[in-house]
Structure formats: structure tokens, C-alpha cells
Amino acid sequence: MTKTLTITSSYFTTAGIKSINEDSAAIEVPVDDYLLSSKGVVACVADGVSSAEAGREASSTAVSRFVEEYFRTPDTWSVSRSGEKILSTLNLRLYRKSHEFVTSTKGYLCTFSSLVIKSRTAHFFHVGDSRIYKLSVVEGNASLKQLTRDHAVMMGGEKPTLTRAIGMDNRLNIDYGSVEVRQGDQFLITSDGVHDFLTEQALTQFLTQASASDNLAKQLCDLAARAGSDDNISAAWLRVDQLPDEKLEDYHAKLTRLPFPPELNVGEKLDGFRIDKLLFASARSQLYLVTDLDSGEQYAMKTPSHNYEDDASYIDRFIQEEWIGKRIQSPYVVQVIQQKKPRNFLYYLMAYIEGEGLDEWIARNMPPSPRQAIALVKDIAEGLKAFHENETVHQDLRPANIRITADTRAIILDFGSVYVAGLAELHRPLVHTSALGTASYSDPLYIMGSNPGIQGDVYALATIAYEMFTGELPYGSAIEECRSAFDYNHLRYKSASLFNPVVPLWFDSALKKGTEFDLAQRYSTVEQLMQDLQQPNAEFLRDEPMTARSASSIAFWQILSGFWFLTLLLVIYLFSQVSGG
């Protein structure tokens, strides 16, 4: 019978004598055999920095997000790569949230130490002054080794000052290491509320004499409390009871060298999936409708194009798409399916969304119902916000990448051009030989080699909203021929009301601001754009200066203003009813 990795573990965290517990801890042992072999077991301890306003939130976020997102990383990635990518984006998220505070002494800061036991190797990630220990017993002799080093210095106070923490800087410097695992090895992760009050000798004695149980970590925390700990107290403990039969050192290398699938025809089978239909094909990828022969479920399978079989950067980006899709959990973004069985080829699965492309919907519904159109724009905005909350920018939002379901909901489908903040310095830089996205909907800054970040998605959303209401583009079709700042300077925004008289002044002004070429004039976030699209901005309702030349002209403008007021009320009603169709 094939042996699998077997772990006994426990974790515990308590406020101790303090009123608030700013520590967080977790251990996740997958029950799914495939996840256990491909991803392993994860344990984490984080200690919120007590001088920071949001230390408790930072430690809780760091632990929960790391555990959750680690198991969503592609099984084609190494442990080190998965951890570094997750922690880099997580650090940037907390760092940006820290800037919500007006004083530099406050922020979302925490230490972080995590252990991943996969196959016969233990991998660790560490920043701050929490610690990871390994206890091995060889020929009856117990040896406790501290795997991490404290990132702290004495600066005259009673306690050391942290030199590194999650959320402290926009660029994370984290320690990574790995050690071989033997059966019977024990691993311990502690916050300073434990190891500042228990010597290594005391820890060794406890681990060698205590009987394994579900509350061993609690017993250790209780021991630290009795030793006089005046801090939050946390510990995570793991013992390796059984190792897999064979070493899997080459497992990752094997997966990253997965061959591209052959050209697939209807009725053929691949890794237990039957090909039902070719949904889409381009020079870069193919999308098939497939059926899982075990469960009967239908999925969309995306496969890479053989045109890029020798392109390492393309392969890297294709694999990253799956990871990004697993991180983003939103009803307005297509779900990437967690792989439950080994792959023999490079591909990934997504939920199959029935419906039509937004480009088809626009062509079929011109002019649209304002209420239905703004409801779809709101769905797309919610999908983009899910990207942005995960420190990612879509970069290629266009009608063809948005699916409209039978019940008239909008779902974003594609991840191929997504940019992940904080990852540019990790691993191989992604070099794009051509601009990402589509010229009609992409921020001109992309075309000129810059990255406008979230504001690039704002531009795309405003452009799509404009087209949904008018059937045209804000700057006309000439924008597709532009390649330089000189070209764009010759373009002028065309009022949406020229193509659809239902569009009111304030709505058109919001679209214009959303598609401004100058970032200083454009909305900074999707939320700001949606606020002005759904509720009239007073700045957009101001009348232009006018000199009255006669009583008759004054009367004329009074009548016209009254008509405009009634029209405004009607349009506000239409645009504010965002539910239903």
C-alpha cells in the first residue's frame, strides 16, 4: 500500500495577560490526497506589532490569506515561488492599508513565520522575531535547532526593535529556507510570548517528554504563561509520523515541463476530460468545452498555443493566469477550478459560463435600456474591484472578455494580461513585445510603454460604458491607429449625447473624466467613476456663463431649464434603478 505524508499537529493562541490578542496562528492539513502530495501541509504564526494601530488585523490577514492562497497556487509552482508571490502581494496590500493612517507609528504590521511540509522537505518563510524550530532525535539524542533568525535589534529599550515586518515597506525582504525531513521530526513555530520566556533547553525538554495530543500547543503556551510571559502567547506544533514512499524532489520540475496538449478534436479525451466543443481559438490559446468523465460536470479548458512552446516567458504567464484566477473569488469573475487529479499536459479549467459576449449584446441592444445597461456596468465594476482588492490590474478589459448570462449578469472571463503588483521583481521579468490589451479599450499609456495601474482599468470601464450607451468609441475609430503622444493629442472626446440623446450631461461628463488621457484629470478608482455614473455630480451640473440679452431670451432659457429639470429627474430615475432588466 502506498504511504502518504502523515502529520500530527496542534496550534493555540491566547492574549495571555493582555486585554487583546494580536497574534494569529493556523495549521492546514489537506484531506484531499492530491492536494496533500502536490501542496503539502501549512502552518503559520503571526504576531501583530503592538505599537501599530492595526496589528491584530494585520496578523489575522497574513495568516488567513497565506493559508487560503497557498492552496490556490498552481501545482506547477515550487513551494518557494508560491510563498514568495503570495507574501509579496500580501505585504503590498498591508503596506498600502497602513497609509490610511496619518501617523507613521500606526499601520498594518506583523511578524510572520510559516512552515510548509511537502513530501520529504520542510520549507520555511520568515520575517520578524517569531521563530521556527526543528527537533530531531538521532540515536536517542534530541537536538533542537532554530531555523530562523530574529529580525530585531536592541536600541536602548527594554525590548528589541523590529527591523523587518509584513507591511513595513513596499518591498518585502523575507527569509526562505528548506531542510530535509525525517520520520519523527518535530517542528515548532512560536511568537515571542513563548520563546522569550522559555529557553531552548526548556523547549527541548517539553517536546521530548510531552505526549502528542490535540492540545500540545496549548500545553506549551500554558507553560510559557507560568514562566511569566507578559505578552500574547502562540505556538504551532507538527510531528512527522509518516513520509511518502518515494521522494518527490523532481515533482515540481516534472510539472513545469508538462508538454503542451495536442490539437484537440471533439470526442477526444484528455486526462479524464472529454472534448465537447471548441469555444475559441487564437494565435495564443484555445478554449474548449469539456466534460469531466468522473463527475459529469462541464468546464471550460484553456490550453496554450503551440506557437509559444519554446517561449519560457509565455509559459510562465500562462501558469500565472491559473493562480490569479484562483485568488479572485467573485460572482462577477469567472471561477478557476481547483485541479483534483494529476495533469499530464499544461492547461487549466474554468467554470463554463453560458451566454453571449458583451460585444454581441451591444450589437443586439442598441440603443439599450438605461436601467439594464447601467446594471451591467455595475457588475463589471464589481468584478474589477475584486481584481484591485487582490493587488491586481486586469489591463485587457474589453467587451469580448465579458460574458452576459441568460439572466443578464456580466462576468469577466480572461486573466491573460493581468498585472500583479509587487511581483515585477520576482523571478523572470515579464517582457511584452507588444502592448497588452486592445487599442480601442486600453489606456494610451500602455501603448506608449507605461503602466497606469488601476487607472488603466478605469479608462477601459469608462470606454466600455460609453460604447454600451452609444455603440461608438469616445475618441472614434481613429484611436486604433494611434502609436505616440503626438497621435493622441490630435484626438478629441465626442459627447455621448451626439449618438444617444438619452445620455444626460452629468453622465456624459463622468464618461469623459473616466477616459481622460491625463491621469491627473481621470478618476483614480473604479468606485469614484461608478459614484458619478449613478448619481449626478454637482460639478457636472453647473451652467456655463451666459449673458441675457432680452427678456424673451431669459424666458426661453427658463422654459428650457424647466424642461431640463424634468428630463434630469426622469434620467436619474432610469439610471438609479440598477436591479432588474
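That was protein one. Protein two is written in the same sequence-then-structure order:
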Amino acid sequence: MLPRTSSTSSVKTTRISSQNKEVMDFQIAKKNQDLTTAEEMRTQTKLVMQPYANWEEYLTPAPLSVAILGELVFISSKTDFSINKNPPKDGYKFIRYPESFRACLMQVCNSGWWAFNVAHKNMDQIRLHTMAVPDYMKMAVKILFQGNDEVVEAHLPDQLENIRVIADDCLELASSTEKHFEDVINIIQELLEACVNAEHFYGEELDAIKKKLDETKLRKQSSEEAAKRSEKAMKDMEKQLSEAHETYKSAMDSLPSGWDMIGMDLVEGITEGITTLIHGITSIGSEVLTQKSSKGTQLKGQESEADSLDEIDIYSKSAEILRCTEELQEFVKDKTINWKDLYDQKHKITKTKFQADQFKRIRESLNKSPNCKAKEEALNLCNKGIEICEEIAKYAPEEKCDEAKTNELIEMIRKLNESARSFDSKSKAVTNSPALTPKPPMMYKEESKSGKASERASENARFRIEQSRAQLDKTREIYEKSVENMEKNQKELTEILITMRSCEVKEIDFNTTIQMLGKGMDAMGRVKEQWEKMVRFFQMVSNIVKIQLTKTLKDFVCTSEKTQKLSYNAKLFSKDLLYNQAFQASNIASLVNMISTTYTEVSTKHLMDRVSSLGKLMAMDKEKPEFQSEVEQLRNSCDGAQRAILALVLKNKKEFEEKSRARLEKIDKELLAILPAASPEEMKSIETAVQSGFTEEEDAAYA
């Protein structure tokens, strides 16, 4: 009897242990979902995007621009002369009064005054518009969670249309503001060109001015290229969404019955890939990658053919590749391969055949992309995955192989998994997509009903925690540098302004005025660049919603549930895609709302009084003593505004550091605390893979 009792006890212990693991995996999945609510993800997006979408860039050049315009008003009160010595054949396009340099300076000031007024009004409207997006998003989610398809078909388009209308209105407001700043730059540019054309008459500092004009032209060219990239980004997104539906359909059709969890893991990889793509394109919208050359990362010994958008498309495959490698890793138990689970006796098929097919599908998709380092790395992962699956397929029917071959396969799987994690970490670094992501709502609902969660929940959670830590550390580092650069630029421009102010009235000659105009154009150019960024943000939101309305919603309406084998069917997959896109659109709107709220507040406190003072200065009689007093007052208030904004920048930086720390502490306290202990080898492997994706060398290639 004793042996039997011992055997029964052992079976019970195994069953209890298995049950405990299921409970633990489900708790981890639930805690991950709690840490990635819509509100948490909006906060996470703001943190990760802070160095790139920071409002400081909009505001720091503004008081300086107003100060320079004030100095131009002051200068225009002195000697006047004509710049119409060598006019263009077709006449001037922007300058109205070439016979009077003073009148030209006043035209610059007037258009600058108008631009800042429009900017304040439009940014305030953008703030009010974007405040409404979360409410429409909540209603969209309520509708999506309805079981009734007719309700979704009837009411969801209205909510999405509301978001689209807001995006289009904000796009118009941002474009209008950008145009006003462009007008100021065009006037200054033409004024400088007129001065260069009169070189035989005035002839000083011409090389510096020509260089400044060339820089402005290059900046304009860069802006046009960014607009083209934005257009290409939308086409890429639409193509990816079409592929997502096709991938889901073909994968589920080829999935043997009873393999539900494998199918769910793949679908999670597809939806995460779309999230990565949208985050990557948003990053381009906020100019994370615009400092990078238009070429992608280079292959050794040859030039890359890919640009940053092509690379984002490639990196968006990282989640699917990682899911496939993790599925292979799952068959390795206690330093041996679980051959019994690997072979499906019912269907007479090796379970890794499904992964092999997915690797082949991803490889086929990657082959269409231009050559670059990212593509080479992704293809290597796919080829290695296919090789491992084919090797396993040789031994799976026998359910065994010799010890040496087993060890070789285990090492191949371990290395593949580590490389896939490294590639996924690079993907997070390049696209700024979040490391911790929620499961799509319909998928989570179905998994909760079944009581099943991924068997790799604890290991995945550790990897994601480490990724989050590395990502926020890198973000802090980049933010630190961006604030340092901002302070440095501010100091340089302020010193130039102080030098110009220290000139005696009699010393303010043509040369000083030209320097002032050059700096004015530079400062205005910086303000305009920020508005270009805003335009691309709203193009992004508008296009995401348009794609939803035309493509994903149409697929949802046309999809039949009857052909699907899983409880998580094509209708639910379409709902998850709809949610994912609506959420990303809402996320961008939330980011813009943060920027617009701060801009409006700071503009009200520190900018608009100075702009009004500039208007007053332009209307004053230059001969009256009050004029000099008003000039001094404007100078002092602009200097005060600079100091106030800088103090705000430093305060914001401190808050950012506190929020980053709080986010990591919350993850550690709520998720890391419930994880079982990990072996030192496992932790070392995770840390190595994550760090290789966030290294300085890699970052230098993308930032």
C-alpha cells in the first residue's frame, strides 16, 4: 500500500503545483493589466515622449523672438535708407516697401506680432478640442464592449467621426499658425536677400548672411521631406492593418484545434506590432528620428537603402518574432526538451510547425523591405527559428534524441530567445513604444473567462520590467541632454542679444541690424518647427481614425464568425484592432493636450503681455521720451519671461524624474513583488538582452 500512497501523493502534489502555477500566472496577467490601464498608458506615453515632445521647445525661443522684434523696432527709429538697389527681375514677393529699410523692419515686427497672437488663440482652441477626446474614447470603448454587432456598426462610426473632426480642426489650427510664422520667416529671408543683392553698396558680413540664408533653405527642404515621410507613414500603417487581418485569418485557418493558447500568443504579437508601428510613426511626428540622416542604419560594407520609416516597419515585427521564439522556449523544461508535448499525436504534427510557418511568413514580409541592419537582424532571427523548427521536426515523432543533440538544440533555442529579446528591446528604443502593454480588451476578456494565462507569464513579466527600467533610464538621460542643450542655446542667443543692446545708438549700423535679422530668422524658425511638429501630430490622429473608418470597421462589418475555430474570433480581433487604433489616437491627443495646456498657460503669464507691448511700441512716436522707456520695459519683461520659463523647465525636469521613479517603484511594488524568485542565470540573460537593445552605440544611430 505504501508505494501506491506515495504515488498518489506525488500526483496530488504535481496537480496542486500545476494549479498554483495557473493561479500565479493568472494573477501576474491581471496585475499587468492593472498597470497598463488607459490612464496609466497615457502617463507612460507622456514620460517616454517627454524629451521629444516637450513644450519647452515651443516656449524658450518665443520671448527671445519678441525681444529681437523689439530691438528691430528700436533700430527702425534710427537712420533710414533704401535696399532697392538691385531688385529681383519679378519684383519682391513679400517685402512691401523696399525703398525704406525702416518700413521693412516694421513689416517684420507687425507680422511677428500677428503670428504670436494667432499662436496663442489657436493653441488655446487646440487645448479645448483635445480635452474632449478622452470622453469620445470612453464612449467608443463602451460601444465596443457591447456584445451586439448591430450596436457597434450603428454607433461606433459616430464616436470615431467625432475624434476625426477634432483632429481635422486642430490640424487646420496648427497649419494656420505654422503659415503665420512661415510668413515672418519669408519676409526676413527676402529682406536679407535684398541686403545681399545690395552688397556693392553696403558690403559687410555677407558670407555669414549667405550661410544663414542657405540654412533657412535647407530647413525648408527638411520640412518638405518630413511632410513626405508623414504621407508615406500613413500608407505604411494602412498596409500593415490590411496585413494584420490577412495574417490573423491565414494563421487561424492553419491552427489545429486545441492549440488555442498558441493562437492567442500569435494574435497578441500582431496587435503589439501595430502598437509599435503607431508609436514609431508618432516618434517621427515628434522628430525623434529627424536628426538621423534620411538613410537607415547601414549594413557593414554597403549603404543602407532604408529610411527611418522602413526601419520602423521592420522593428514592428519584433513582437511577433519574440512570441514565436518564446513558444519554442516553452518546450525546454529543466534542461531537457519536453518531446511528449512537442508532438501532437492526434493530428500527427510537430507543434513547432506552426511557429516555422509564422517565421516563414514574417521572413516573406521582411524580404519586401529595403536592405538595412534592422532587416538583416530580423531575417537572421527568422532563418534561425526555421532551422531550429526543422531540426526539432526530425526527432519529434520518435519523442526523443541523444543527449548531445538535445543540449545543442536547447542552446540554439536559448540563444535565439536572447537575440529576439535584444531585437525587441532595440524596437522599443527606436520606436519609443511601451515595454509594458495591456492585452487587447477582447482577448483579455476571453482569457479571463477561460481562466488561462500565458505559461510564461512570470518570465515575460521580468523581461518587461527590465525593459521598462532601461527605457525610462534612457529617457531620463536623453531628457537631461535635451535640457542641457536648450540651456546652452538659450545662453548663446541671450549673449548675442546683450551684445546688441550694449551698442550705443550711434553705433547701431547696418551690420548690427543684419546680425539682428539673422538671429530673428533663426529664432522664428525654431518656433515654426514646433508648429510643424504639431501639424504632423494631428495628421497622424486624423489618418489613424480615417483608416479605422474605412478599413478596420469595414472588415468588422464583413467578418463572419462561423468559420472561426476559437472563442476569440475574427469579430473580436477586429474589435481589438479598433480599440487599439482609437486608443493610440487618444494617446497622441492626450500628449498634445499636455503641450497645448502648458503653452497656453505660459503664453498667458509670460508672453502675451510682451507681444502686446511690442504692438504698443510699433504705434508710438519714436521721437518721444516715452518710447525709450517702453523699449527698456519690453527688454526687462522679455528677460524676466526667459528666466521664468527656464525655472519652469527645471521644475518640469524634476517632476519628470519623480514621475519616472514613481512609475518604476509602482511596477516593482505591484508586479515584481508577486513574481517567484528567478535564477541568477535567467536574470543575467534578461538583463544582457535588454541592455544590448538600449546601448549608447545603438542609440546614437537613431537619435
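The CA atoms of residues 244 and 250 lie 10 Å apart. Keep this in mind for the problem set.
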